[in-house]
Amino acid sequence: MRHIKLTIEYEGTAYAGWQVQPNGLTVQEVVEGALAQMLGMPTKLRSSGRTDAGVHARGMVACFNTEKALPLRAFREGLNTHLPPDIAVREACEVPLAFNPRSDASSKHYRYSILLDPLRSPLARHVAWRIGAKLDLGAMRAAAAHFVGEHDFNAFRASNCAAKTTVRTIYSVDLVREGSWLHIDVNGNGFLKNMVRVMVGTLVEVGLGKRPPEDVAHLLVARDRQVSGQTAPPHGLCLMRVFYPEDSLS
């Protein structure tokens, strides 16, 4: 039996998220369908996590088992011939049978993109949250610093989040300005449902002067979702990469 690890890129606009569900077409469903076509049998994927409807990925990790003696390039080039233009396998490699793409992950990198432009951009409409007002990036960076470390992020998750614990560790939150684009890069050991989007929504409120930077520290202690910021739109969010210890991959 072989255990194949795929790194998948997708533009999530047309999908109801990553994970298979009854209320819409999902990325997982499409990739599993392509695998079934290529391998001639139903094949289930285990992934590093999930993304919501409209969220994108450059580095979603998913694994499956197969007894097919195909070269690794077939799991990339071959699968891509069966996938639509908005989904692609970027990498395929063989990993130990014990490898678990979710529990073995050491950290994840999410990027949220904001377009700072008073005029709408048709080309950016699916990949960035457009904000026409000026943002105070200094205040946003001061607020973002409060997220770093181990905290209870109960105030920064969706009301229907089913996670058993709300404690997570954030390693870094960086704001990168590139012309009219603002990228918010968040690295952590794990994330709750909508966590990055609520963090970004809160930072934007700081940038607009609607709350002071130190408010983030108070929200982490209060643990009350009702008083934290708005949930930023899904289309600005992208899962960039999932990191694993080297010994789990060999």
TrEMBL record:
<dbReference type="InterPro" id="IPR020103">
    <property type="entry name" value="PsdUridine_synth_cat_dom_sf"/>
</dbReference>
<dbReference type="Pfam" id="PF01416">
    <property type="entry name" value="PseudoU_synth_1"/>
</dbReference>
<feature type="domain" description="Pseudouridine synthase I TruA alpha/beta">
    <location>
        <begin position="8"/>
        <end position="99"/>
    </location>
</feature>
<dbReference type="InterPro" id="IPR020095">
    <property type="entry name" value="PsdUridine_synth_TruA_C"/>
</dbReference>
<dbReference type="InterPro" id="IPR001406">
    <property type="entry name" value="PsdUridine_synth_TruA"/>
</dbReference>
<comment type="subunit">
    <text>Homodimer.</text>
</comment>
<dbReference type="GO" id="GO:0031119">
    <property type="term" value="P:tRNA pseudouridine synthesis"/>
</dbReference>
<dbReference type="GO" id="GO:0003723">
    <property type="term" value="F:RNA binding"/>
</dbReference>
<dbReference type="InterPro" id="IPR020094">
    <property type="entry name" value="TruA/RsuA/RluB/E/F_N"/>
</dbReference>
<dbReference type="InterPro" id="IPR020097">
    <property type="entry name" value="PsdUridine_synth_TruA_a/b_dom"/>
</dbReference>
<comment type="similarity">
    <text>Belongs to the tRNA pseudouridine synthase TruA family.</text>
</comment>
<keyword id="KW-0413">Isomerase</keyword>
<feature type="active site" description="Nucleophile">
    <location>
        <position position="52"/>
    </location>
</feature>
<keyword id="KW-0819">tRNA processing</keyword>
<comment type="function">
    <text>Formation of pseudouridine at positions 38, 39 and 40 in the anticodon stem and loop of transfer RNAs.</text>
</comment>
<feature type="domain" description="Pseudouridine synthase I TruA alpha/beta">
    <location>
        <begin position="143"/>
        <end position="245"/>
    </location>
</feature>
<dbReference type="GO" id="GO:0160147">
    <property type="term" value="F:tRNA pseudouridine(38-40) synthase activity"/>
</dbReference>
<protein>
    <recommendedName>
        <fullName>tRNA pseudouridine synthase A</fullName>
        <ecNumber>5.4.99.12</ecNumber>
    </recommendedName>
</protein>
<feature type="binding site">
    <location>
        <position position="110"/>
    </location>
    <ligand>
        <name>substrate</name>
    </ligand>
</feature>
